[in-house]
Amino acid sequence: MENEKKDYSKTVNLPKTDFQMKANLAQREPDFLKELYDAKIYEKMRAKNQGKKKFILHDGPPYANGNMHSGHALNKILKDFILKYKNMKGFDTPYTPGWDCHGLPIETQCLKELKTDKHKVDKKVFRQQASDFAKRFVSIQREGFKRLGVFADWEKPYLTLDPKYEASIVKVFGELVEKNYLFRKKKPVYWCSSCETALADAEVEYADVTSDSIFVKFKIVELSDALKDKQDFLKDYSVLIWTTTPWTLPSNVALAFSPVAKYVACEYILNGKVEKIIVARDLAENVKNKISAESFTVKAEFDGKDLEYIKCQNPIVDRKSLGILADYVSMEDGSGIVHIAPGHGQEDYQAGLAYKLDIISPLNDRGQFTKEVPEFEGINVFKANPLIIEKLTKEGTLLASIKISHSYPHCWRCKKPVIFRATPQWFMGVDLNDLRQNLLKEIKNVNWVPKYGESRITGMIQTRPDWCLSRQRLWGVPLPIFYCKECGEPILDKKIIDKVVEEFKVHGAGIWYEKSAEDWLKGFDVKCPKCGKTEFKKEEDILDVWFDSGVSSEAVLSSGNYDSLEFPADLYLEGSDQHRGWFQSSLLPAVAIKGRAPYKTVLTHGFLVDGQGRKMSKSLGNGLDPLQIINKYGADILRLWVASCDYREDVRISDEIIKGHTDTYRKIRNTIRFMLGNISDMKKEDIVKFADMNEIDKYALWTLNEVVKQAETGFENYEFHKTVKVINDFCTVFLSGFYLDALKDILYCDKVNSKARRSAQSAMLEIVTALVEVMSPILTFTMHEAWKEIKKIKQDLPEFVTLVDFPAVNEEYKLEKDVLAKWETLVKIKQQVLAETEKLRKDKIIGSNLESSLTIKYGSKYEKALNDIDLINIVFGSWDIKLEKSDNEEEISFVAGKSSYGKCERCWRHIDHIENGLCERCAEAVK
Known about the structure:
single chain, alpha/beta, 4-stranded parallel beta sheet, 30 strands, about 40% helix, about 20% strand
C-alpha cells in the first residue's frame, strides 16, 4: 500500500472564479444593462464629478426615421468611449442625446400613409402624424443605443420637435434678422421637382447619368462696336454653343466668351453643306470632330473681348441673347462659348448680376414649363429635352447631338435628378457683415481631428454660396414672416418674431397654422412699408431642416433647457460628410450671433463599407444590422470592433470581420480570468507591498505602468485602436507569453500563503484591476462583470468600474536601469528558449517545458541576467538547466532536450532530489 500512487490534485491551488471562460455576451449583457440602469449609472457618474471641470460632447442628432444602423453604432460607441474615459479622468460629462425630427423623409412617409399630397392635406392632422412618427423612431433608436452600452441622459433628450427647441430655432432666426444677415431674392437654387422643394448643398448627391450633349447655333443679329466693320462678312454667321441641358435653352439670355481666348469665324463642310459659325480657335478642331464635319476653313480671327455685346437670336424662343465675357469659360471641351441662363445656374446668375440680365426661370414647382414657354407648357424639363432637340433639328440650328455619361446632382431623399431653378427664397448672406472672413478665422481656432478636416471645411466655406433657408414643405418650423396682401412686401420685425417665440415655447410650431395673420399681428399696428396697406398673409414655407440642427448650440448648449450644458462644446464628433452638413450649419449661426465657433474640437470618422470596401446600400444588400451582430456576438464585440478600427478612414464591417474580433476578445477575457481565478483566495491583508515583492513581480508592475501610459495616450488622442493594441499585446505577449506563464508553478504548487505566491498574487491584483479599469470604456459589459470579482477582495472599491478614476501611473513602481536591462534580456532569451522547446514538442519528445532540459552557454554580456538559477528555472519553466560560460562575450546558445530527472507527482516538474514522488518544495507544501 505504501507504493500506491497518491492523488495530489486536491493539494494544489487551482483557480476559482465566477468570471466564466465562456462570456455568453448576447444572453448576459441585457441583465448587466438592467443592473446598471436600475442603479442609475449615468446619474452616479455625473454625481461623482459634480462641481469639477466639464467636458461637453454635443451630440449631432441622427434622423428619427428608421431603425438603428451600423453607422449609428460606430458614431454612438465612439462618443461613449470618450465620455466614459473623460469621466474617469475627473471631468463632469453631461451627455444629452438628440434627434432630428423634422424634414422631408418623415414628411414623405406620412403623406404616403395619409394617401394625399402636401397641397391637399389637413396641416393639423398631418403635423400630429409626423410628430408621432418621429417620436416612435426616437424610442426605437434610443433602445438600440442603450443596448450598445452607451450611457446618456436618455430620459431627457433634445428633440427638434419639442416646443422649447422650436422656439429656439425661431429665436435664432430673429437674431439673424436683427443683425441683418437675412434677405429675400430670386436666385437659382437646387430644386427637386419630385419633392417640390429647394435643397441645401448638403442634401445633394452626385451620380452618373447619360445626357444629350448638343451643339446649337445662335444666329448673329447685331454686332458689337468692335466688329461693326465686319458687318457684311459676319451677317450669315452663327455662334455655336454646347450644352448638356437642352431644357435650359428657353431661359437663355446671353452667350459667354472668354476675355483672353482667340475666336475664329469658320466655314465647316457638314454633309456637303457650308455652316458658318464662330468657335474658340483652340477648339475648332474639336468642334469638327464632334459635329462630324468633313473639313473646316478659318476665315477670320478676333479677340474674345471683341464679341462682348454682340446680339444673337435664341433658337427656341423669341428673345435676343447678349454676348458677355466670363473668366470661367473653359477651353477644354465644347466650342469655347457658354450659353447663359441666370435662372438655372450659380455662375450664370453671377454673370447675370454683372450684366444686369433678366433672371428667367419659366418652371413651376413640379419642374414643368409654364405658359411663358407655350410650346412646352406642362411638360417636365427632362421629358422636354428630346422635344427641344427635335425642334432645333427642324429649325436647322442643331449641328450635333451626342450621348455622354457624366456626374449630375440628385436629391438625397428621392434619388431623382435635380435642377437649378430661380425662385424667390430666403437666404442667409455669407458675405454680409464680413461673415465669410469671420468663419474662416474661427475655423483656424478649432482643433480638427484628423487635421485635413480644417482644409476641407476651409475650402467649402471659401466657395459656399449664400444659405437658402426656405423650404417649400410642411414638416418643419415655419418662417415667422408676413407679406402684404397688396404688394407682397415682406414684414420682418424682431418684436413680432419674439411673440412667435413665446407662443412656440408653450404650444409648439403647430400654432403657426392655427392662428391667422391678423391674430399674430394683433397689437403691433403694422403697416406695409411699401404701399401702406394693413392686410397681411403668413409665410407658407418652413426653415431648412439643417437650420433646425444647426442652431442646436443655442437651443441645447446655451438655452439652459438641458442639464449642465454650456457653450461652446468641447467636442463635436460625426461622420466626415458633416463638413458640408452639420459642422457648417452649426458654424454659420454661431459665428454670426456669438462671434465664435460652437465647438473647440471637431473629430470625424469615415464611412462604413463592407468587407470588400463597397459602400453600404440597399441595392447591394450588404448592410449589417447592429442588433443582429449583438444578438449573435454581444455588444462588447461590436464595441471592440469600433475600438480596433482606425476610424479616421472608411471603416470595413462584415460578419467575418466582427467574428475575427472575438479572438482578440477571448485573449483579453482569458487573461483576466486567469488572474481573477488565481487571486480568489486572497484577502486584503494578504497584499504584499511593492518594496517586499519578488523582482519578477516588480518588473511586471513596472511594465504595467508603461502600458497604462500608452493606453492613456491612445484615449487622449482619440486613437482607440492604439489603446486596444497595447492592451492586447500586454495580455498575449507579456502576460500570457511571459509573466503569467512563469508564475503558474508558484501559483498552483507553492503553499497557499508562501511569500512568492502572495507576491505574485498582489502584483496580479494590481494588474487585473488596472486592466479592467483601462478597458472599461471599451468593453463596458465584460469589465462590469470582472469588477464584481475584484470587489470580492477590494471591498472598499466603488460599486461599478465606471465610477473609478482612470488608473494613474504609480511612481512607486520604479526599477534601476540595470535591473530593467536584466529583465528585458530575460524576456528576449525566453523567446529563444521557447523556439527550441517548441521543436521538441513538435517532434513529440516532450509534452511541456517542465519535461525539458536546457544547457545555456553564455558570454559575459548575459552574466547579470543569468546569475540566479532559481529565477532562471521559474522564467524558463524548466528545473533541469545547466549554465556554461563562454569566452565569447556576445554568445548565447541553447541545447534543449528531454530531462533525465524524475517527475514530481504533484507539480510535474522534472527536478533533482525527488523523494517519495515529491520534490522538496511539494513535500513541504503537503505537510
